[in-house]
Amino acid sequence: STALYRVFQELLTNVARHSHASHVDVRFGCVDGAYVLTVVDNGRGIGPGEIESSASLGLIGIRERLLPFDGSLEVRGEPGKGTHAVVRLPV
Question: Percent of the chain beyond pLDDT 70?
Fold first, then answer.
């Protein structure tokens, strides 16, 4: 629970610092034996280079935090239309 809370906290921090969003939608549930956390914003949209960049310390930290639990992070963005992040953590 602490790992998931910290991941959620980092995702919201990224929205606040980088996205320039006016709206954030958060969903959480259990699907197919995994906790699923989805954070979607309507901001500038993260670029593909930013997702995999070694300078994206927040995303790297999230992936490292999920690794011991066999969790995953999927991030995609569309310029000017926002960013969509999905975290999956096996129950």
Answer: 100
Burial 16-33 (b: 16+ CB within 10 A, else e): eebbebeebeeeeeeeee
Tokens of 59: 């995303």
pTM of the predicted protein model = 0.90
How many angstroms separate the CA atoms of 71 and 34, rounded? 9
- DSSP lists the bridge partners of residue 34 as 31, 90
List, edge to edge, every strand of the sheet that includes 82-90: 24-31, 34-41, 82-90, 72-78
User: Exposed, middle or buried: residue 7 (CB in 10 Å: 0-12, 13-18, 19+)?
Assistant: buried
Both structure tokens of 12: 């919201």
Q: How far is CA 17 from CA 10, 11, 53, 69, 91, in A?
A: 10, 10, 17, 27, 30
